[in-house]
Amino acid sequence: MLRRTEGIVLKTFPLGEADLIVSFLTPDHGLISAFAKSPRKTKSRFGSSLEPFTYSNISFWGKEDSKLPRLTQADIIEPFQELREDIATFTAASEAALFTLRLLAEGEANKKAFYLLRGVLRMMLRPSDRSFVIVLYKIRLLDIAGYSPSLKGCARCGKTGYGFYTPDGSIICDSCIGGAATRGLRGATPHHIRLSPGCVKLYESLRTWDMEKVFRIKPSLGMMKELQSLLGAHVEYLHPEKR
Amino acid sequence: MALGIIENLIQRLTSLPGIGRKTAQRLAFYILAMPDGEAKSIAEAINDVKDKARFCSVCFNITESDTCSICSDMERDRKKICVVEEPSNILVIERTGFKGIYHVLLGALSPIDRITPEKLKIEELLSRIRTDSAEEVIIATNPNTKGEMTAQYLKEALAPLGITVSRIAYGLPMGSDIEFADEVTLKKSFEGRRNI
Fold first, then answer.
1. Domain boundary at A46, A79, A112, which?
2. Residues B111 and A95 sit within 8 Å (Cβ to Cβ)
3. Which pTM does this prediction carry?
4. Of A41, A72, B51, B175, which is most buried by a Cβ count within 10 Å?
5. Considering only CB atoms, which chain B residues are within 8 Å of A79?
């Protein structure tokens, strides 16, 4: 059956002589991979519509449970060409795309994730701190996907604590971590990250504040690094990166 | 037993890009029906490529000897170096009558695929330009995002060397119709318009 939706190109993978497998994030079907016939040929009707981050109206053909439907049309809505004209911006946008591919499952509709990515790509077109935008995107996407770390006190006893335990994805206070570490929870190597109270507060603000107001927050470089290492450790435990 | 041999050939053929089980099966039975000499010459050609083909020590084109036929040709214009992504690009550009020399990067920058400048033959290009007498570098990477990123990176890396750096033109392919062009391609062709 023919399905129509909107989609943002996250990644393309060359196949055969001139074909591509294109990964899209769509509002109605979540992450999908589609087979595009000959887009690399000079006179392809796809033109530049399959370049990374292009936002298009797409149509694809295939059974409902098809793993690789065939892309029949892609009409550009927003090309996001400026994201591809500067190496630093492109690298930042690529980080957002990779994070999305890593976190979301294929074929699960997620309108919020789609609109978040579209909003973040638009933010990157404006002069803004790219690393801040990427951290903000990661925090919001974790929240939408249901993978947010639990930072509101110790997950075991409820007491205040600032030690983040990656196997639990939550704060575990010092007295509880002693037991957890010796028991070797879930058979994993205990990984305890010490967070500052400021980092926990910043995380919650970035997760919950209104998108328009969130740019009023001006975190220090040290705080951003702390937040990035928390996100890195949390996601690496959830979805280890394929190398 | 014979089916085991055929099955083995089918399995080997499916490891080639764009060849699925059905095509591999068809090819395997076609090879079986071929005259002995013809089938063996295919096997020999594959062996030859694997045994003898290597990268040119100067430009990284595919060659049988240390330097490729283009690099060894003294008639060519050594002041113009055309930078391409893959050796196969050279074959196409050669058909245009270009008489300069080449440099193959063996890929293009792609942060999403973790392909960084260190993984490409960029440093080799820079040291080649420093020692040779090149006056112009023509960047002929693909007109897509990876090719563009590579061209931008090269532009910045080549700037201190004080040579002319040019990029192949963008726009509509010959024989196409404006009506079917997308806005990015059309915008690029307007930006790159020239007086006639």
1. A79
2. yes
3. 0.79
4. A72
5. 182-184
